[in-house]
Amino acid sequence: MSSVLEITDPKFEEEVFNADKPVLVYFWASWCGPCQLVSPSVNAIAQTYSDRLKVVKLEVDPNPEATAKCKVEGVPALRLYKDKELLASHEGAITKQKLIETILDPYLG
After folding, report:
1. How many domains does the chain fold into?
2. Could you say which DSSP state residue 4 is in?
3. What are the helix (H) ranges across the chain?
4. Residue 69 sits in a domain of what CATH number?
5. Which phi and psi (to 5°) does residue 26 adopt?
């Protein structure tokens, strides 16, 4: 079972900016081929890091407010936030190992 929480614009502030631990936000679209490649990695990370990281996913097309607020220009996109601060950002397909090395490890240890 995936521990990735699907959110929408109205829940963004509460689930991301008011979270009590770092949050990895995964922006995706149903029509996006690379998103289908990245999704299994995001799900695996949600399970592996569940003790110290919250993972949420947000579909970009029906949620323009959060997409604009996070300056998402292409999908798939990943943003790592802690205490309302953007720690890391990536757009485009990424392997699970690279995601861990470049986005998570520098901030989660």
Report:
1. 1
2. P
3. 9-12, 33-48, 64-69, 96-99, 105-108
4. 3.40.30.10
5. -110, 110
The two structure tokens encoding residue 101? 């090395």
Closest CA to 86 of 38, 23, 29: 23
Encode pLDDT of 33-91 as tens digits: 999 999 999 999 999 999 999 999 999 999 999 999 999 999 999 999 999 999 999 99
- Is 35 marked active-site? yes
32 is annotated as an active-site residue? yes
Tell me the Cα Rg of the chain. 12
Domain that holds residue 48: 5-108
| Annotated catalytic residue within 16, 24, 35, 94 | 35
DSSP code for 20:
S
Q: Would you state the structure tokens that stand for residue 69, as one six-digit string?
A: 């607020």
pTM: 0.96
Residues 6+ apart with CB under 8 A from 23: 15, 16, 53, 54, 55, 56, 80, 81, 82
